[in-house]
Amino acid sequence: MLRFLLRRLLMLGPVLVGLTAIMFVIARLLPGDPVGLAAGPNATQAERAALAQEFGLDRPVWDQYLSYVAGLARGDLGRSLMTRHPVAEDIAIYLPATLELVLAAMALAIALGLPLGLLTALWQNRWPDRLGQVLAIGAISVPRFFLGLLLQLVFAMWLMWLPLGGQLPVVTLPPPRVTGLVTLDAALAGDWATLGAACRHLALPALALALSPLAAILRMMRASAIEVMAQDYVTAARALGLPRRKILIKTIGRNAVSATLTVIGLYFGWLLGGTVLVETVFDWPGLGLYATRAILSQDMMPVIGVALVTGLIFIAVNLAVDLAYGLIDPRVRYE
Amino acid sequence: MPPLMPPLLEIRDLHLTMATRDGPAQVLTGVALRIARGEIWGLVGESGCGKTLTGLSVPRLVPCPPAHYPAGEVRLDGEDLMALSERRMRALRGRRIGMILQDPATSLNPTMRIGDQLADVALAAARHDPALLGPGPARTAARALAATMLDRVGIASARQRLSAWPHEFSGGMRQRVLIAMALIGAPDLLIADEPTSALDVPVQAQILALMQGMAADRGLGMILITHSMGVVARACSHVAVMYAGSIVETGPVVEVLDRPAHPYTRALMAAVPGRHTPRGTLRALPGTVPDLLAAPPGCRFAPRCPRATPACRAARPPLRPLGAGHAVACAHPDAPAHG
Q1: For the ABC transmembrane type-1 domain, which residue ranges apply (chain A) (predicted)?
Q2: Does B66 sit behind a cis peptide bond, omega within 30 degrees of 0 on the bond before it?
């Protein structure tokens, strides 16, 4: 187990170096004038040269790359031309909001997808199952930004149950920053009113983001549970008189769930890199908005930094998934 | 007294039809069995003759549909199981009827520890029979009972083995665990489907001896489903020979094996090589089990039978008693002389 973890962590180094190298090359290949964009239309030639020198953009690419990698070792992700802040600080500000959104969406998708998948497998080919299948395909097919707009229209405009966007009401003071996740910080501060407001703001964007992983998890769980239900040990459990609920959860559920772990891991990464549309629709101050603005102003350091951080989180999640396999099924436990 | 006291298990005229893509197949056509406490019945026959489905029909584990029971009764101590609600039936499984499925390699949940699986069965049985676990916290008592049962089926250092996973056990040990699971609810009837077929020969003998011992200790009635006359001869008190969905010969093992009356029984016995079987003379039964979709109206064995007459093909012979509990369903049996 420990050796497995160490081996996986050692593999991280080459992955990171490769990722940054590719990003650097792509950044240079893109046509455009980032310095010009950052300096503004009225800047003089001398001002532009000063800006380029300040950010090291006048040096050859390989030289820039080497100093970037050297900086990485110290946790320095470079500086943004746009915000003039260190990228690491910017990310520290925007990442928690995105993380909160993705975690909430995945929690929702897992909490609903697993039991619904199990139940539709049990009701295989009866009407609740058919309905579930149609809805799941619908949920996968609808574009997320459109779903976001639809949710806003129904729940915020017509029913007026939930707020339209943002993380908190404008008049509410954010809780003291500990983790950066507003809901968690509010709970830590014991500020239940703010926690309630934060949850209400989180609900719609999380739902918009959750629907397609929910549908994918449901379908995977259903298929896997149907396969498990044909196994001898399920018949054996029935022959031994185990209660139905126990058979459903411990016998069928436990054996079916590991197949969904892969989908969960993949969707986590997919959401992390794909929140921008939902963040835009719901005015959510997250990493997606930050990265988009950086791309539009050809500001490459934040883009590389965001790619690196999301990549790292993705790797960590998939490592956790690999470990979870072993927790669920002792036969695939790592030595 | 016997007429007043119903037998432990009585199967009467059990018919089972299975819906298939090509139409209904008549899988069981009038199975009849009477089993008393303490008797070990061997249910023997070729693959596809319906012995497994007969076994699964007792605790009603055959999924309906595709299966359908047009006629028949299954009575446990006189109570008709076919008429019970699913809820009442569930209360009998594991507690009054223990069951061991065919393959020990796939009958245990791979994601649960042995002890937890055993304890769950004990807890399920105790819901209907609180005396099983006695006083005190149920979970603790169930685990203690699990350890006792593992010990009883011959697993060394049972208490430590409770936390083992199924994949850490060999085939023989898994079969021992399954026997323990089937018996932990203290059932009166045990149905074991090919309990030794997947095991090495020395382990087979151990498992058979273990099952015989447990049956004797607890006064169990037992159905041992097997394709092997050798297992019947070694472990059973009675035998029922099945062919194509019905029982063609039945009786005490000593009677049937010494004086087989049905040509099919004789053929099955001839297929077992004995100590004096000369090399190169191993007998195989010619032909195969008939197509259950288009079964002939008469005796289903007639197409393979050396003595079949037109009368055999016209009407099915009923089970006729030959004396000493021995009965045969054949128009031209080898008439054994009974004293």
Answers
A1: 95-325
A2: yes
Nearest beta carbon to residue B181 from set A240, A244, A251: A240
Residue A15 in any domain: the answer is no
The gap between the terminal CA atoms of chain B, to the nearest Å, is: 26
Q: Does B112 touch chain A (CB under 8 A)?
A: yes
> Cβ B92–A254 below 8 Å, yes or no?
no
CA distance A94 to A115: 33
Q: Tell me if A212 is assigned to some domain.
A: yes
Does the interface ipTM go beyond 0.90?
no
For B186, name the nearest residue in chain A, comparing CA atoms only: A240
Which residues in chain A are closer than 8 Å to B180, comparing Cβ atoms? none
- Domain residues for B195? 37-61+86-243
Q: Which residues on chain B are in Cβ contact (under 8 Å) with A329?
A: 110-111
In a domain, B256, yes or no: no
Query: What's the confidence (pLDDT) of residue A118?
Result: 92
- At B281 the pLDDT is 54
Mean pLDDT of A14-19: 81
The pTM (predicted TM-score) of the whole model is 0.81
- 3-class SS at B123? helix
pLDDT range class, residue B339, cuts 50, 70, 90: very low
DSSP secondary structure string for all residues of B2-31 = TTTS--SEEEEEEEEEEEETTEEEEEEEEE
Choose among A235, A242, A331: nearest Cβ to B120. A242
Q: What is the domain-level CATH number for residue A304? A: 1.10.3720.10
The 10s digit of each residue's pLDDT in A65-98 is 888 888 888 888 888 888 888 999 999 989 998 9
Mutation target among A122, A124, A240 for the B interface, most CBs of B within 10 A: A240
Structure tokens at B214: 């447990």
| Number of domains within chain A | 1
Q: Is residue B218 part of a domain?
A: yes
Residue B274 lies in a domain: no
Domain of residue A273, residue span: 94-332
